[in-house]
Amino acid sequence: MKNHQEDDPLKKLPPILRKGLDRNLCVCNEVPKKDVIDAIVNGATSVEAVRAQTYASDGIGCCKQQVERLIECLCAPDADET
Ligand code: FES
Predict the structure, then answer these.
(1) CATH top class, domain 4-74
(2) What percent helix, strand, coil does the chain show, rounded to 5?
(3) Which ligand 1 atom minimizes the distance to the CA of 62?
């Protein structure tokens, strides 16, 4: 039996995306990357949902691609799932 929900979500991110977790991913609204990751892990699986929870990408939208990339990585099915 798999308990993938309890795995560290950061393991799903490529090493480069695990850096700077305390830095603002959304500079416009001062939202740290770790807050965005938390929101995604807790069910915000679209840019709109992340924006509603954290305000990330609610500025001029310049971090939208970064939010999309995090969603893509964190919501990808486990590679070893059959
Ligand atoms: S950095 Fe997030 S909207 Fe500009």
Answers:
(1) mainly alpha
(2) 50, 5, 45
(3) 4
